[in-house]
Specification:
This protein has about 425 residues and is an all-beta fold. It contains no helices and 31 strands.
């Protein structure tokens, strides 16, 4: 939508809601625990599923070169799951340390990003500057990788999020650094006639900018072809130690092929901080989570507060109205990751802190927020991670299948003999 840049202030008080209730009758099950060897280690991204119900994901470390993997989990007839590693990264030209979710095309090929590896001439922080890749299944069951783009700096650095397709087969994504002012980019990849891909930077964020900096989220389209995402800093430059607490932004395509940028919301700490992506509900409202700010004291390293879930609603005149759906205190959940919304308007998410106090700052939790009569929201705790073999500290959001089963990952716990401190993480399922 073409509308003036606006600053939307979230209401300082969350909408009236009931207190959290005990976990509902749902079954939690670890369907795979990583061992830290060639099978992978520390999953940090959301899972995706194919039409057969198989799950696909990434691990930041582990694999044959300890630089991350792409894996597949296949469900057997007895309900057990088997892991297959589709690709091992080495931090070389093919990439390394993937921390983002994957994306399918219509033919079943898999696309993603790595935060490291790629162009060896790029100035590295941890092994070059990252790539966008494609994995294609072969007839013998193996998968082949093609690097679609290696970042070099002016075109972006260190992609932390996955890619999004448009209706024409172009890919869109974000980088947290690089670009004209080394503050991140939004980019587009278009396929050429010879099968190669060309990158174009649609927007470069500015340092110390009210327009945001450090684009950190997977992008989402609306029905008009506009793109939406979040930045981890910038925006309100009087907040978060003068670095800004992050923004929600929109990019709109113009008739001359350029894209215009506008800020839909600037976080101020009280309303949340360092947002991690947005998602549309069926009515066209945006929901998202900010893992810091709000109330409580979870991590408290840069910004106190245990994070919030928020909603942005289109209003007359092209503006957006914002409100807090939930401000976490850390008791039931804290530091929320990206959320999902089901067809009934319920919001589901994970908190990487809060919940069981068996871990420092809590072991994390899974929750559901349901619209309540009178305009409030009801919080239901679905699971509190206890640490140990059942996993702890989820770093990513959730995935839901057509039957309402929920899947996700934790970055720690599981196999306690794993070489990583506290376990190498698990993949879990919640059956309602």
């Amino acid at each position: 939508m073409n509308c003036k840049a606006v600053v939307v202030l979230l209401t300082l008080a969350a909408l009236a809601m009931t207190s959290a209730v005990p976990a509902q009758a749902s079954q939690y099950k670890v369907i795979y625990a990583f061992h830290g060897g060639t099978d992978g280690e520390i999953p940090e991204a959301e899972l995706i599923s194919d039409s057969s119900g198989n799950l696909y994901g990434t691990t930041e470390f582990g694999g044959s070169a300890k630089s991350g993997t792409v894996f597949k989990l296949t469900r057997g007839s007895g309900g057990d799951w088997t892991e297959t590693v589709l690709f091992h990264f080495s931090n070389g030209s093919e990439g390394g340390q993937p921390v983002a979710s994957l994306t399918f095309d219509a033919a079943g090929n898999v696309y993603g990003t790595t935060s490291a590896g790629g162009d060896s001439t790029c100035i590295p922080l941890h092994g070059a500057c990252g790539v966008v890749f494609e994995l294609t299944p072969n007839s013998d069951g193996s998968w082949s990788e093609t690097v679609l783009h290696s970042f070099t700096g002016p075109d972006g650095l260190y992609p932390q999020a996955g890619v999004t397709f448009d209706g024409s087969g172009n890919l869109y994504g974000t980088t947290v650094s690089g670009g004209a002012q080394a503050a991140g980019t939004v980019y587009k990849l278009s396929q050429n006639g010879d099968g190669t891909w060309s990158e174009a930077v649609l927007h470069s964020f500015g340092k110390n900018s009210s327009g945001g900096a450090g684009a950190n989220s997977k992008l989402v389209f609306d029905s008009a072809g506009n793109l939406y995402g979040t930045t981890s800093s910038g925006g309100n430059m009087s907040a978060c130690n003068g670095s800004g607490c992050g923004t929600v932004f929109e990019l709109t395509p113009q008739s001359d092929g350029t894209w215009s940028s506008q800020v839909l919301h600037r976080f101020n700490g009280t309303s949340g901080g360092f947002p991690v992506g947005v998602v549309f509900d069926s009515a066209g409202n945006l929901f998202g989570a900010a893992p810091s700010g709000g109330v409580g004291n979870c991590y408290g390293l840069v910004l106190t507060g245990c994070g919030v879930v928020y909603e942005l609603t289109p209003a007359l005149g092209g503006s957006w109205q914002g409100k807090q759906v939930r401000a976490f205190s850390g008791t039931h959940a804290g530091s929320p990751n990206p959320v999902i919304v089901d067809s009934a308007g319920n919001v589901y998410g994970t908190g990487r802190s809060g919940g069981s106090q068996a871990c420092s700052f809590g072991c994390g939790a899974i929750y559901k927020l349901a619209p309540a009569s009178g305009g409030g929201w009801t919080l239901t705790g679905l699971y509190e991670f206890p640490g140990g073999t059942n996993g702890n500290w989820p770093y990513a959001g959730l995935t839901m299948d057509s039957a309402g089963n929920i899947y996700g990952t934790t970055g720690s716990g599981g196999d306690l003999s794993c070489e990583s401190f506290g376990g190498c993480g698990v993949v879990f399922q919640i059956i309602p």
